[in-house]
């Protein structure tokens, strides 16, 4: 199966989602670091899932992949989630409670999105202009209610950069519910004077982006040498989560997925991989052998 995906391209220093026709071919993908690492991954996942079931009973808790790298991916704060395609669905847009945040006013977008028969007619639980969001964010209580009301938050790329100051720690601490960036219409690349600009909205394009966000997983570049990615659930199978892990590592390592992927270059490689839940200890599934240390160990034996 070849998955068509959305990825990020930069334009004037900003990140945008776009439809990418050449995705990852999951059917031909082998597990990174070989068969032993794949076997160790499945064993660790079976142990993790069994422990969770025994301790807490059946649940839909997230399983995380923790990736330790040689260097941080960034030195600056970054709040833009990068979508990573995975073969086993994380969620369905139709079963998720989704908030869309737009520029002011929201009318030019609300009307085509909610129009009867539109691909996005029932996609969003609410569509909120930035002005209303600012007024709701004045108290922590209101922000916490907003947090609990929506499972997924997506925002027009033109206002996305304003949200960290508005939503604050309630949404951004630990990347709890960082808003995803969407474009409300396909970019045509034609410069338009501000006074002549017509606000466009393409419901099908919006729907396709939101579906991709819900179906797949994501990462946010951190300022330490750790990348944490949701790769499945406690009620997933070990095989399903293993397949998702393979896809995540392939996306982060392979330069053909730049600029969103291919971020682990020759001078910044994976040191170790671990799986965990929010409450569990981290179980190792791969650890890089330090070649210099191995050479020293060999010389000691001589």
TrEMBL record:
Name of the protein in its database record: Ribosome biogenesis protein UTP30
GO BP of this protein: ribosome biogenesis
InterPro entries: eL8/uL1-like, Ribosomal_uL1-like, Ribosomal_uL1/biogenesis, Ribosomal_uL1_3-a/b-sand
Assigned GO CC terms: ribonucleoprotein complex
GO MF term (any one): RNA binding
